Amino acid sequence: MSATHLRTILPSRLLSAVCIAALGLSLAGCASKGQLTTGSIPSMNKPLESMNASELHSAAESIGRAYDRNPKDAAVGMKYASVLTMGGRSDQALAVMQQVAIHNPTDRTVLAAYGKALAGAGQFDKALDAIQRAQTPDRPDWQLLSAEGAILDQMGDPASARQRYRKALDIQPNEPSILSNLGMSYVLQGDLRTAESYLASAVKQPGADSRVRQNLALVVGLQGRFQEAEQIASAELSPQQATANVDYLRAMLSQQNAWSQLKASDAGNTN
User: Fold this and answer.
1) Nearest CA among 185, 260, 173, 183 for reference residue 217
2) Which pLDDT belongs to residue 122?
3) How far apart are alpha carbons 159 and 162 in whole angstroms?
4) Lowest mean pLDDT: which of 87-101, 127-141, 158-172, 237-251?
5) pTM of the model
6) What pLDDT, in 10s, does the model give residues 139-197?
C-alpha cells in the first residue's frame, strides 16, 4: 500500500492517537527515576495501562484525595495527572500539572510531565517549550529528547523529530521506548515497512512493555495482517491484559471504519 493512499484512508483521529501514544512512551517512567518522594501516593494493584474505565475512575478518586490534601506534592500531582489522562480527562490533567509546575518551577521531572500534559491537550508550542526548559545541554536527558521528538512529529516536523530520537539513542542505545517512538514517526508518514522494522526491534529489547507491543500490532494491522496483529497484541500477557490489548487494537483500527477500509484496500490490491 502506498504512503499517499495510507494517509488518505487513515482517519485524523487515529493519526493523532498514534502520536500521543508515542509521547506517552517517551515519558514513561520519568517520575520513577527522579528524586521525588512517592510514599504519599496511594498504592494500586495493577499498571494504569491495564486498567479498565471503572478502575481508572476509582484510581482517580483515590489519588485525587491525596492531591487535595497536598497539591504541592509533585509525585502525587504527576500520578494524578497520569490517571486523568488515561481516563480521557486531558484538560483536567493539564490543570493539575499547571499547579504542580507552579509549585515546582525548577524540577526537570515536573517540567517534562507538564510538557506531556500540554501536548495531550494539543498545546504543542507550549509543550515543546516546557520540554526544552527541562533539558540541560551539558547532561542531556534521553527521555526528554525522545519526548521532544514526539511533539515535533505532532507538529509536522518529522526530520527534526527523528534527529531528536537518534540523539536519544546515542545516549541510551536500543532503548525500546525510543525505537517505538521512531517507528511511530514513520507511521505518521505512511512508511509502514520502516515503522515495522523499528517496532520489531523495540519489542525484542529488554524492558519493552505492553505499549510497545501494541504499537507493533497496530502497524502490522495497518498492513492488513490482522490475525498476526492480534497475536502480537496478546502475546506474553495475562488473559485480562491480552483481552485489553486486542480491544485497544480493534478500537484503534475501527475508528471511522478504518479497519474495513484497509481490508477492502488490501483485497483490491490482490486482484
Assistant:
1) 183
2) 85
3) 5
4) 237-251
5) 0.76
6) 999 988 998 998 999 898 999 999 999 999 999 999 999 999 999 999 988 899 999 99
Please name the residue that has the C-alpha cell 521531572. 109
Angle, alpha carbons 253-11-2 (nearest 5°)? 85
C-alpha cell belonging to residue 222: 495497518
C-alpha cell at 158: 518529522
Torsion angle, CA of 192/195/197/198, rounded to 10 degrees? 180
C-alpha cell at position 198: 523499528
Note the pLDDT of residue 117: 86
Kindly report the number of other CB atoms within 10 A of residue 1's CB atom: 15
Domains of the chain (ranges; CATH) run 52-141 (1.25.40.10)
Predicted confidence at residue 34, as pLDDT, reads 38
Nearest CA-CA partner of 65 in 37, 31, 40: 40
Q: What is the pLDDT of residue 137?
A: 87
Spatial contact of 249 and 229, defined as CB atoms under 8 Å apart: yes
Write b or e for each residue in 215-251: b if 16 or more Cβ atoms lie within 10 A of its Cβ, otherwise e: bbbbbbbbbbbbeebbebbbeebeeebbebbbebbee
Handedness of CA 126, 83, 37, 177 (dihedral sign): negative
